[in-house]
Amino acid sequence: MSSSSICLLQERHFLCLLCRDVFTSPVTIPCGHSFCSSCLGQYWTQRPVKYCPDCRRVFPNRPDLCVNHILADISEKYRNTRPQKQPEEEVVLDVEQMIQDRQDKIEKLKNSLELQKSSYLREVRESQKVFSALVSTMEKTHKAVVCAIDEKQREEEKRVETLVKELKLEIKQLKMQSSEPELQPSDQSEDMRDVLSLPEMKDLSKVSIETDPCVGVTRRALSDILEKIKMEVNRLSKAELKRIEKYTADINLSAKTAHPFLFVSDDRKQVRHTGKLQEVPDNPRRFDRVANVLAKESFSSGRCYWEVEVGEKVEWTLGVARQSINRKGKFTVCPANGFWTLSLKAGGQYVTNTSPVSFVALEHRPRKVGVFVDYPEGRVSFYCTESGAHIHTFTDKFNDRIHPFFSPGRLHGGRNAAPLMISSSFCSI
């Protein structure tokens, strides 16, 4: 292409979207868009997910970047032949663009605020519906308890009344037998014949009434309510999990942080315990005592979500850790030391690393665990993705970048040889 032909093209064809200048060592990514190599490298370094800054297409794995020599040659020719602008004009154009960028941002903020208001309103309506239903259920249950108690009391009153009547008749019989001589049948009155014709006397040891008949009545009713609340919580948890899936992040393991016992797959999505020390380079970021590994990605703002397939493993630990955690020597995995984790122990118990540890009772053994981080709110939540059940949430205050944290657990004679597998992919919001 001749220099004159190049000059006929609009300048925007030779400008990098990131630096807004003529391409320098341009690279073209799979979606077809091009950027300066250094601009794109810096852009992706600052973001955990690799996506096109123009069309927002996400790449599960970082594409190999090769300089587009044809575009580089054309851009260099354009740089040398483009009409020179007056400095004042360039300044005006830059300012106008800055003004436009800020106006666009204002519109986006306003739109986001409207969406946020809708979200607030939806949550208020949902909570009103849920709590109104629970209050109604509690009121109905309380009325049912009171009615049942009243009915039981009336039945007991009738029973006691019958017993008292029978005992009084027996008293009359006993009095007649002890104070009167034997009477001829013709001399007996009708009442006297009724007394003397009573069946065998009652066993007084069996004639009694329970003085505290309502033991456990309220507790059982409340247990029924708690079961309904549990069902409602599970329903909300499933809906919650659906909503946070849009924050799914592309997570890749960092082999540089993996303990020598661990093997990280080439695609950086799996980690397993090998049972033997591997020859790996010494690295200040590598764990040297406990078989842990961190993700390459870290977060210091916003929300993110990923899923890990644990399958039938008998021991594992998942969660997040501060970037500044101690990775050498002996340390305690707890929030105070920068770890927020959920573990399955070899005995089948699920525990959270609170101080002291807390045991978590799960109805279903999860084969895949979802981890959700809300950095501004300081929350780390765990979910069973198959059932949608919420497992546990840590609430803390983050003051450092945090990394996803993984430990596949010990081998246990080969029973725990399967790897932990990250099974998430980025979804654009």
Automatic annotation (TrEMBL):
Coiled coil: 92-119
Main location group: cytoplasm
Record localization: Cytoplasm
UniProt-listed InterPro entries: B30.2/SPRY, B30.2/SPRY_sf, Butyrophylin_SPRY, ConA-like_dom_sf, PRY, SPRY_dom, TRIM/RBCC, TRIM8/14/16/25/29/45/65_CC
Swiss-Prot/TrEMBL keywords: Coiled coil, Cytoplasm, Metal-binding, Zinc, Zinc-finger
GO cellular component terms listed in the entry, alphabetical order: cytoplasm
GO MF terms held by the record: zinc ion binding
Domain B30.2/SPRY: 231-427
Domain of life the protein comes from: Eukaryota
Limits of the RING-type domain: 16-56
Pfam families according to UniProt: PRY, SPRY, TRIM_CC, zf-C3HC4
Family according to the record: Belongs to the TRIM/RBCC family.
Protein name, as recorded: Bloodthirsty-related gene family, member 2
Species of the source: Nothobranchius furzeri (Turquoise killifish)
